[in-house]
Structures are given as C-alpha cells and as structure tokens.
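Forwarding the complex inputs:
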Amino acid sequence: MSSALLERDAAQQAKLGIIDCDVHHALRSPKDLHPYLPARWRVHLATYGSRRPTPFTGSSPYFKSAPALSRKDAWPPDGGSPGSDLKFMQEQLLDRYGVEAGLLHLLSITGMDQRNQEFAPVLCRAINEWQSAEWTQKDQRLKAAIVVPGEDAAAAVKEIEHWAGNRDFAQVSLVTHSIEPLGRRRYWPIYEAAVAHGLPIGLHSSGNNGHAITATGWSSYYTEEHHEVSMSQQSLVSSLVCEGVLARYPALKVVIVEAGLAWVPSLCWRLDRQWARMKDEVPHLTRPPSSYVREQIWFTTQPMDEPERPEDILSILEWIGWDRILFATDYPHWDFDDPETAFKAQMTEQQRRMVFRDNARAVYGLA
Amino acid sequence: LSFPHVGAIDCDIHPAVPGMRALLPYFEEHWREQVMVRGIDGLDSASFPVSIPANGRPDWRPATGKPGSDLAAMREHVLTPFHTRYAICNCLYGAHAVHNVHFATALCRAINDWIAAEWLDKEPRLRASIVVPVQDAELAAAEIDRRAADKRFVQVLLPAAGESPLGKRQHWPIYVAAERHGLPICIHAGSSFRHATTANGWPSYYLEDYVAGSHAFQAQLLSLVTEGVFSRFPNLTVVLAEAGFTWLPQFMWRAVKTWRAMRAEIPWVDRAPSEIIRDHVRFTLQPSDAPPDPRQMEQTIEQIGSDRFLLFSTDYPHWHFDGDLALPDGLPASLVQKLLVDNPLETYPRLKETMQ
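Prediction (whole assembly, two chains):
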C-alpha cells in the first residue's frame, strides 16, 4: 500500500471516531486499591495477596512475550506499568486514533477467581470504585465493566445492582476461566440481573480456575496457551448456547473479547450438526445453536485472524454478521491491533463504520 | 442406493468389545484371575456410550449386543455396501483410561490379540490399529514392538485427551517405536477423563463434550508441532480420526500468526506450522461437520490447501450420515478419488505391502 493511501486511511479513521472494545488499564500497584478497601482487607491484601489457583505469586505459568505483556513503547514516561497512566493512554491511544469510546477490561487483578470467598466481593467493589474514580470519571470516553465475584452469584447480583444505571459502566464482566462453564445454572442469576439492567456481559479471556488449559492437560509454551485461550472461549460459546442461557434470556447480549473470530463458523457448523443428532438431550434448544450465536453474541476482532488469502476473512465476517463485529486494539499489549493496518482485506465504507463504531454504539447503548 | 466407488479404504471403523468375558482368553493367567475375582468389567469409554444416538446408527444397531460387536453385521452394514477394499479397526475399549498401568498394559495386549484372532484372522479386508498403554510411553513402545511384526496392524492408536499433551517429551518413546516400524500415529476422539473436557470445567451435556472434542485435537496438534515432534521424527505421519476438519483453516492461520510472533520461544519449529501440518497430518472424513452450504465446504477445502489431507471413513457404527451418503456435498471430484484410495495408500505403507 502506498504511503499516500495509508495517510488517507488514517485521515478517514480519525474522522470516523472509532470505538475500541478492548482497552487495558492497570494498577500501578495493589496499593492503588487501598483507599477503596476496608482496613481489614487492606491488611489482608498486603499480607496474603491475590490468591488464585495458579503456581506463581508474580507471574503467569506461561511466561509472556514481553514484560507486562505489553508493547515496548507503552511504558509511561513517568513510571508505572503500561496502561496505568491515564494521560499517557490518552496520548498514545485515545487521542492518537480518535477513539470516541474505549471499553476497559482490567486484567492486572481479578476479583472473581480469588480463592477467599469473603475477599472476592470486597475486592470487586474496590476495583469498581477505583475504575470509576480514577478512570471513567476522569475521561468520559472510557467505559468500565462491572467486575463481579461471579462464583458467588448472589454477591455478583448485589454488585451489579450497586452500579446499574451508572453510565461509567457499560457491561458486566466475568472471568472466562470460571470454576464451572459459564453456562451452568449457578451463574444464571448474574445473567438475569444483567438483562434486568440492560447490561451486556463482556467475556475477556481471563482468570484461573485450576482446570488444565486443555482437555489433555497443561501445554508447555506461551505459544500454545495464547492459542488455547481462544479454544476455551469457543467452549464458552458452546456452553452459553447448549446449557440454555441464551434461550432462557433472549435479551441477553454477550461480547466475546480477545478470542479472535475466524473459528465462529466452523464451531457453529459442528454445533448444528451434532445438535441435529442429539437434540433430545437439550430440549431447551428449539432451534439450531448457530441461530442463538448469531443473534446474541458479538465478537471483538483482536487478535485479528490472518487467512493465507487475506480476502477470506470477509466471508467469515459476513457469516457471523457485519453487525456483530466489534473492533478492538488490546492496547497496550504486545499483540495490539492498529486500526489503520489490522484489516488486510478491503471493507466497504458501511462495513467499516459498523465494525469500527456503530456496532459498539448499538450493543453498549453509547450515544 | 449403491456407493458409487469400488475399492474404498475405510480408515475408521469400530469393532466393539462385547465385554471382558470376550477378552479373558487373551489375558495371562494372573490378569485373567484378577479380572474374574474382582469382577472387572464395563470399560466401555464414557466418551462413546452406545445408547446415545450418535454412537450407533439406527439401521446399524443389532437386536441385541453393542453396535459393532458382530463381524457378519459389519460385513453387511459397511464392508459390502461401500465395496470396501480395506477397513481399519480402531478399538475404543477403555484401556487408555485405566489408572493401573500394569493392568492397562495387559488389557491393551488382550485387545490387540483379540482383534487379530477374532477380526483380522476372519476377515481379510480388515486391518487394525495397535492399542497401547498411553499412560506409560516405555510400556506403549514395548507393545508396539510386540505387535508390529504382524503387518495387518497399520498404525498406533492414541486418545485425543489423555494425561498430558502428546507433543511432550515423555511420549516420545512411542514415536521412536512407531517410526522404527513405519507406523503412523492415529489420534482418535475420546478422553481418558484425566482433565475436564473444557478448560472452563465440566459441561452438563454430552453434546458439549462431543463438540469440545475438536479442541482436544487442536491442542494435540498444537502440542505436536510446538514441541518439535515433526522436527525430531521427520518420517512420522499423524492421523486425526473423528476429529472433524472444517476447523483446520482457522487453526492454521492462528498457529502461523502466533508462531511468527513467538518463534524465539520454540526455535526448533523452523517452518510455518501450516507447512508442517500439510506434510505430516491427515484427517478422517467423518464426522465432516459439513456446513449447510456446499460452497462453504469447497472454500474450506481450498483453504486447507492440500489434496492429500483427507482419508475416507464411515466411522462405523457411529451415526454421522444416512444410507451411503458418506461423502458430504462440496468435496471436489478430484479430491474424492484421492481420499477414497490414494491418500490412505500413501498414509499407510503397510496397506500396500500386504496388498493381495
């Protein structure tokens, strides 16, 4: 592509105003949460830390490609880890790319997979207070996800009710590596509350549940794990459909974040074929699984799948539905998708508007 | 209806062990006594309960007994109507899930000897896979060595979900033995139930387990490539059986993209995963997980980018199609001839060696 063409694309992009459906803010340190934690739990966090079913206190068992999983240039000049400095995020992402709204997903600490069941709801509340005070109130373009202690559905519902109606929050997020598949009944009250308050459920690959990363055990390399989290997201889609969540809550909207999307058609073909053979096991499904997926699930683009023939991505997006695709950068992570170069195939102007902005406005109710 | 092709090679059929009693003559005295004294029986895999519709086509179900347990019925149901030249027996009895590795080994020996005596000796069109105790690679290799002289055994059978990913070095003695005897490795659907069937835990429904099976295969394929099995064993062929294959294009795209970014972590993977897979990995046809629109199947085949990857299978007695409609719509004619005969012959050198 010529540089003139690139410049023109960039100019169009800036004018369009994109919505980035996966932005990662971060804690500079767990101490950032201290103002939002009762004294007893400040001491607890400082003493016992964030205890989850994973082997290392300060690292994933799959060592990432880069420090803090991040782009080398994303470390704020004034110190702190990537994503922890609002001003630098504004400069490097929001202003630079003309981001009209950015959907925040916090990964540097998670509440739902805390093993201490008393701590999980307290931590989620603190995280949400911090998100509101330090991020969304300071930049109205940013929209947070209500972080909930999802393994305790009653506590999760309380947390949703606490924040519902607050425009700082655009969705409810659950970790995807939950103790049971998220379609199971123990999580249904959460979906009921989300529907009652008109909030989509945002499912960003995250969390630790003690289950192996594959059905055949633990793989060795980050190269594998990075790919396998996408497979677990596929099982999550199967779960939400087959366990009857989508059928039971037809108004529920689910956003699958950071899983890629080229797998959606082939997963749906398999689901439909096997459902046709075993539908008597799941009588709560009155139509093919793919029809629930296409009506109630949205998919973010990053990491953008790259077919050998770039234009092959178009038929996949078409199959999923152009109105179900949401652009995401994954800023500030190493596999950031630049809105100017992530798509290697030519979309129409209308398709671009939908993917980069309008679909997100619709699903999140952003003006 | 008659299957329009003669001489097809069916690369995945399932003779069923009627029960432990049938295997008793094939156990050594110690294990025969253990089986009888302790009442050990009922080791049919929970990955394939025979009462579930998918695991026995209605017109392939016998009046009594398990689907696939009778040779005469197998001839009538599948070998004759499909004009089968050879069919490869993959016995799914649950040896792979036994915790006692000594018993698992004895059970594998019994199954292999039972297959040879009760099926291969009686029907010249049949070939079989060597069932091995995947729980312990040294013992698995010993079983391969024990049975490999019988050329009617054409590959080694491993489950799609076991204790640890198959690329890991602990499993390599199996590949050393397989390569020594010129045997492909067949990874077949099914789990040892050592881990939840999804990374998100145990789903409620069989349907979900079955669908998630394709992710176990994808994890195995990724493991074999990433750990460098095909670099270390350049002559090894791996067959994924009952895995589906329409997921392969997107799997390869993602694997290539990740490898480009992360190859410093796995320097022994010295070319794109897609090239390695096209050279070393084959897929059986059923279930085809076919898209509703045949043009999507055509496009999928184009994206896979090889006419050598697919091997004909009926997956008898499992139920994926009716009548003789074993070939899904959208397969190009040029591929059909290859998958029925040429690709199996290329994949399984022993078929050619024993051709009469």
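Strands of chain A lie at 18-23, 99-104, 142-147, 169-173, 201-204, 254-257, 297-300, 325-326.
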